[in-house]
Amino acid sequence: MLKLFKNVALLEGISLLVLLFIAMPLKYFLDQPGAVRIVGMAHGILFVIYIVMATVLKIDEKWSFKKYAIICAASVLPFGTFIMEYKMFNQNKVK
């Protein structure tokens, strides 16, 4: 399940970046709101899946509250899920 979570984190992070740096500029600078509807919905679904999976993994993997809070907070920051995945799972910095 951890591998699936890492993949969801990657997709969630990409969807946030696409929303912020492609879809929103298209909406506000070129008056094309369609991209925000599509990407926004995809990002919303991925965000919910990400948080649910993080909660399940917190219980299954017995993560500390600190690790869980950092993982959840990373989902709302641009590039946050990429940095979190590297620091939390590749280097095992926070137990």
In brief:
By secondary structure, this protein is mainly alpha-helical. The protein has helices at residues 2-30, 34-61, 65-74, 80-90. This is Integral membrane protein.
Write the layout of secondary structure elements.
Blueprint: H1 2-30, H2 34-61, H3 65-74, H4 80-90
Helix pairs in contact: 1-2, 1-4, 2-3, 3-4
Given as residue ranges, the uncertain stretches (5+ residues, pLDDT < 50) are none
Strand percentage lies at: under 5%
- Helix content percent band: over 70%
**What's the overall geometry?**
elongated
By DSSP (H or I, 4+ residues per run), the number of helices equals 4
String of helices and strands: HHHH
Overall mean confidence score, pLDDT: 92
In total, the number of strands is 0
Taking Cα atoms only, what radius of gyration do you get, to the nearest Å? 15 Å
User: What number of structural domains do the residues give?
Assistant: 1
Keywords: Cell membrane, Membrane, Transmembrane, Transmembrane helix
Protein name: Integral membrane protein
GO cellular component, one term: plasma membrane
Membrane topology: Multi-pass membrane protein
